[in-house]
Amino acid sequence: MGTTSHDYSDDTVxxxxxxxxxxxxxxxxxxxxxxTVINADLREVPKEDGLSTPTHEAIEEAGGRAEFVExxxxxxxxxAAVVEGAREFGGVDVMVNNAGIYRHASLTExxxxxxxxxxxINARGVFAGCRAAARDxxxxxxxxxxxxxxxxxxxxxxxxxxxxxxSKGAVMMLTRVAAAELAPHGIRVNxxxxxxxxxxxxxxxxxxxxxxxxxFIVDDADLPDLDATTVGSDIPMDRLGTPEDLAGxxxxxxxxxxxxxxxxxxYVDGGYHTV
Length: 275
Ligand code: NAD
What we know:
By secondary structure, this protein is an alpha/beta fold. It has helices spanning about 20-30, 55-60, 75-85, 110-140, 160-180, 210-215, 225-230, 245-255, and strands spanning about 10-15, 35-40, 65-70, 95, 145-150, 190-195, 265-270. The chain binds nicotinamide-adenine-dinucleotide.
């Protein structure tokens, strides 16, 4: 069972980007803890399929309740429709805004369209999820929880990261503003900040059309020495993180054990942000 004392068996949990990586593990863990889980992702199976069973099927095979809804989180109306659809299961209790993409380029090489795309998915997608869930929880008078996936990049700059770090900084501030506005209504909003996690992150980025995709690709050789300038040179715990390392943080922040925790950025990074 999960790592929290919270009983999720009456809860409906939406996880964006639950087809692979961190989101998949978070969805599986909420499913294990009894929740009805809705996976809102661009695709049902990862682009580079290393998994035989889609997330919602894996949850069902383990005896849980889950469904997949094809969703592009950069489309705010689509995100609102997922939240609306959750009413079929009693309405959203926990919204996990996790979908995200990674692109890098030096500032001077970054194309406006690339910047806009990263912001549309990573920042506007989280805004859309927070807003839709909050509106629905307020309408229903539900004291729910929202957990966003931020990053060490929310607070620490890295060379070549103008798009990604700007988007993750926005996630952190959206989390704090939403937390302050929604606290009087009993809705808590927090964020998990992963360090370097072993997923296919970056490889599974959405198809964005040949011509545009080409223009987004900037060879590492065009960048200043990335290794020498990334935040910290080592992970103090001396290993990369895994989705399994992350999932418990989401269940904690969404549950009763975190009843007095809101607006918090919880690093799960093996100490990476400390160095
Ligand atoms: P991943 O690529 O395995 O998973 C991302 C998921 O989001 C995929 O299933 C993908 O299909 C989905 N997605 C992408 N664009 C989408 C869109 N427009 N609409 C709906 N779904 C979309 O990567 P991951 O490592 O599991 O990343 C999950 C989150 O964790 C991201 O927000 C990422 O920024 C964050 N993060 C990852 C790391 C890391 O090192 N892996 C570190 C810090 C933060």
